[in-house]
Amino acid sequence: MRKLFIIPLLFLILTVSAQTKVTVVPKPVSLSVHSGNFHFNSATNIITENGAQHEIRMLNFYLKKLYGFTLPVRNKVSANNGSQIVFRLLKNNERKDAYNLEVSADKIIISSSSNEGLFYGMQTLLQLLPETNTESISAGFTIPELSIKDYPRFKYRGMHLDVGRHFFDVNFVKKYIDYLAFLKYNTFHWHLTEDQGWRIEIKKYPRLTSVGAYRNGTITGHAPGTGNDSLHYGGFYTQEQIKDVVKYAQDRFITIIPEIEMPGHASAAIAAYPQLSCFPDESTKISPRTPWAGTRDGKQVQQTWCVF
Q: Does the global pTM surpass 0.70?
């Protein structure tokens, strides 16, 4: 009889524990979960007390993108406004990348001494929401009452994307930046040039993209390759696209570090401007074992990997 009582009790405890478990990445400096919940729905208002308009626009941008709705914005807290999300910019000497997130039954307060900190608190709030909106917003989401105090352990938090060997379009790069912002990275290392392709428009040197941005094929299998797809492959970003991506990252408190490699990894640049080579009259050295697409004469954008 005792066992019959203990087993359902353990199941109940585990169920309640699972329901209140909160996972935030990266792990906050401190996180405590309380009893009770905040009900997040279309009647929830966003409140700005001072100077957080950018972060509010970002919250509504992601709510629209992820769940298909936005929330109304008001200028002050009111007892008649129902559930509320408050952005509070504080005037204190706390570190600029720190934030506090307090969730109570009727209010979420994100506070920081900087807009950067408010943005990180907003990203943590997004992590508390479900991955997809399985119900209509009128039904809403439930967030457990909790307290979070957080700040980054590392000043430089960076990720890298190589678009030289494999080109990714602007939409993908922006999606990548969204993921970085979601996880509170603050630096994006953009690898823009390689032996296999030059990806950034330089108007004074148009052949860098008209020639250097494309290769005649790509090996298949491990280098030196077991075959070649023989597909004309490449792409590049215009200066306007670069500016757009830089602004997109800045809006998310991410600094872009562009990488333009020289003198190594410059086969694409030399294919565009052979006179820059130490041996301008020599053809690109290609291993006879490499399955190559097109001519082997003259300077070539590389179709295989390794160091050249």
A: yes
